[in-house]
Specification:
Blueprint: H1 2-12, E1 49-58, H2 61-77, E2 85-92, E3 98-105, H3 107-118, E4 122-132, H4 134-160, H5 165-197, E5 199-206, H6 209-212, H7 216-222, H8 224-263
Parallel strand pairs: 1-5
Antiparallel strand pairs: 1-4, 2-3, 3-5
């Protein structure tokens, strides 16, 4: 872009003035969420941590979907105060039936939704992952500053080129490209900042009776057809590999036996 600016300056000549030419458990925007409270822990002042939490709960099948809806309603009720947004929600049926929900909110908002789930379901596991976004945010800020400075220079050049149509067209084209890059960079920077200012919570709800009610013998019978199919498939595959060699071996045996008869 600097080369384009230099070329435009030369084009305008003496009639125009020259233009001066980046996982952990430490604190970012809010402390990592414990099973009961949010704590703030010491972190390097330059760290910009984005937290992601995963919680697994068990609840009877009849309570699974209502519990999911309760979590959704809790998020909606704090949408304004805690910036809670529902990102994903799904319910799967069948042998491995589960329900899941994912939200983004402030640290306090995530804790509120988590407590709502814990009040009706049994929390079996909870994990937290943190990513330091200090480097990406710093790089993004520098890029934004450079683009804004370049845009200002182009705008000043555009004002001076008002009497030169060709130069004005070139400057306007370059300004449009710079503005597009600036908008994209600002959007990317805002998304990174949002990840630092808020946290995500992924909740999985499983049926506690699913594995308990099914004995190993029952599972063996239920999987019999699939296991038999896989066994037959393996046999057919092995036979396909062995058959040509069996034919060759049979031919060799026949040739050896015939040679012995002639020799005798």
């Amino acid at each position: 872009m600097q080369r384009v600016l230099f070329t435009l300056l030369l084009f305008l000549g003496s009639g125009l003035a020259g233009c001066n030419h980046r996982g952990a458990d430490s604190t970012g925007s809010g402390g990592p969420i414990e099973t009961k409270v949010i704590e703030e822990r010491a972190a390097p002042p330059e760290a910009r941590l984005a937290y992601a939490h995963i919680a697994e709960l068990v609840a009877p099948e009849v309570e699974r979907e209502p519990l999911l809806r309760a979590g959704q309603q809790t998020c909606q009720s704090i949408a304004q105060s805690q910036q809670c947004v529902l990102l994903e929600m799904s319910v799967a049926t069948g042998k491995e039936a589960t329900a899941s929900l994912k939200i983004r909110a402030t640290a306090q908002g995530v804790q509120t939704v988590l407590e709502r789930f814990k009040s009706q379901g049994k929390l079996t596991s909870f994990s937290t992952h943190a990513e330091d976004l200090a480097a990406p945010l710093s790089d993004g800020a520098r890029k934004l500053a450079m683009l804004k400075d370049y845009r200002a220079k182009l705008e000043a050049l555009s004002n001076r080129a008002a009497g030169n149509v060709d130069a004005l067209i070139k400057v306007s084209h370059e300004l449009a490209q710079v503005q597009s890059e600036l908008d994209d960079a600002a959007t990317a920077q805002a998304r990174l900042q949002q990840r630092v200012d808020t946290q995500t919570l992924q909740v999985y709800i499983r049926d506690p009776e699913l594995r308990r009610a099914t004995s190993p013998l029952q599972r063996a019978f239920s999987d019999f057809g699939e296991d038999l199919s896989r066994g037959l498939a393996g046999f057919v595959t092995a036979l396909a590999y062995l058959l040509p060699w069996l034919l060759v071996l049979a031919g060799l045996v026949w040739a050896v036996l015939r040679w012995r008869r002639r020799k005798q």
